[in-house]
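STRUCTURE:
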């Protein structure tokens, strides 16, 4: 259990620190790069369509390297450039989704941003050709059979790459709350799973996934990765599927906890919060403040509860293990990062989007609302397709 003197999440003034005035070594805005995995959908059956590589070729003329293939042929990945301004990142997200949708229409198909497919046969999956994907299938076997799941990954530039490990330590307690905000995968193979984020639950089966451990130092991180490679729990450093990881090829910390969210507005909310959490963590790191250290068993349980219930009901406080209203946990996060949001001029964006989510619900809530109208999973797919590229 935590040694926090006040119980519950750590005091927000300690987390917020100097960024109210923008002082310290992080005066320049941190850059954000966003990766979104989308499903390719047959508009007649509403099931995933295995034409991802063809769609990538069709969209590459306009998007270049900002579109790529994924593990299965049901998926593609869209990437933004690094941006200091989230408004510019949002414009790139919307334009990339629109370009992908237009290219899909040329193939008689649609794109959909959801953490899991609503309909369709889920196993075995059509794997994208490539040596690394083939190696993954040979090594991890049936784990790959249920990886038709889509995430939103946010990279935040870290001026000193070795700080990324310490940032990871400070971000760990907030993973359940980010999961609740991004939950967008309630359906699987035509059934409501009872979870707001079924993707989170299926992803946890991998040997190196879920909340990362607490790292005593960058050397501890490097030694642990080497041990996992030698133990063959990883095939390469790219297989670190922790919810937070220092990028192995970019000077960033990568937060991987979010489902592929419904709309570009949802993506910007997650990106703004992730950057603000990173800025707040860097401030604490440079002030020499120790990272909060919830018990790993409680943190894992909190992530499970967040994946099950999303924004509805109660979540688990990572420090006390007690149940707290999910909305209260979100408000704690917003209070902790408010100085960083102000500094990046993202506070109004986040307040507006949080107000919207309190009214409309998360992506999972909106998918279920679409289903309740006629109890039709086809309606759910159509809703997701429409929300992916709003007019």
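SEQUENCE:
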């Amino acid at each position: 259990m935590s040694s926090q003197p006040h119980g519950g999440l750590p005091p927000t003034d300690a987390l917020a620190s100097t960024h109210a005035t923008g002082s310290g070594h992080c005066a320049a805005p941190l850059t954000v790069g966003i990766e979104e995995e989308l499903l390719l959908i047959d508009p007649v059956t509403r099931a995933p369509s295995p034409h991802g590589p063809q769609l990538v070729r069709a969209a590459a003329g306009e998007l270049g390297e900002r579109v790529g293939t994924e593990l299965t042929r049901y998926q593609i990945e869209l990437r933004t450039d690094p941006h200091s301004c989230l408004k510019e990142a949002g414009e790139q997200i919307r334009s990339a989704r629109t370009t992908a949708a237009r290219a899909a229409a040329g193939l008689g198909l649609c794109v959909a941003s959801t953490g899991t497919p609503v309909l369709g046969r889920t196993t075995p999956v059509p794997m994208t050709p490539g040596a690394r994907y083939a190696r993954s299938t040979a090594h991890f076997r049936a784990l790959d059979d249920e990886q038709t799941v889509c995430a939103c990954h946010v990279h935040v530039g870290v001026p000193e790459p070795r700080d990324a490990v310490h940032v990871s330590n400070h971000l760990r307690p907030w993973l359940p709350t980010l999961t609740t905000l991004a939950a967008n995968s309630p359906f699987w193979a035509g059934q409501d799973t009872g979870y707001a984020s079924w993707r989170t639950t299926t992803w946890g089966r991998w040997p190196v996934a879920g909340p990362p451990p607490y790292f005593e130092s960058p050397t501890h991180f490097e030694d642990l990765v080497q041990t996992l490679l030698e133990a063959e729990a990883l095939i390469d450093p790219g297989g670190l599927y922790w919810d937070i990881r220092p990028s192995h090829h970019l000077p960033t910390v990568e937060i991987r906890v979010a489902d592929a969210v419904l709309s570009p507005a949802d993506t910007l909310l997650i990106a703004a919060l992730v950057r603000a959490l990173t800025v707040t963590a860097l401030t604490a790191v440079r002030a020499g403040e120790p990272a909060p250290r919830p018990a790993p068993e409680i943190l894992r349980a909190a992530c499970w509860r967040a994946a099950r219930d999303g924004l509805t009901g109660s979540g688990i406080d990572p420090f006390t293990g007690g149940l707290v209203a999910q909305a209260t946990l979100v408000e704690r996060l917003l209070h902790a990062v408010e100085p960083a949001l102000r500094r990046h001029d993202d506070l109004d964006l986040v307040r507006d989007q949080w107000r919207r989510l309190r009214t409309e619900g998360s992506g999972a809530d909106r998918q279920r609302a679409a289903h309740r109208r006629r109890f039709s999973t086809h309606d759910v797919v159509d809703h997701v397709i429409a929300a992916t590229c709003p007019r």
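REMARK: Residues 32-388 form a domain with the Creatine Kinase; Chain A, domain 2 fold (CATH 3.30.590.20).
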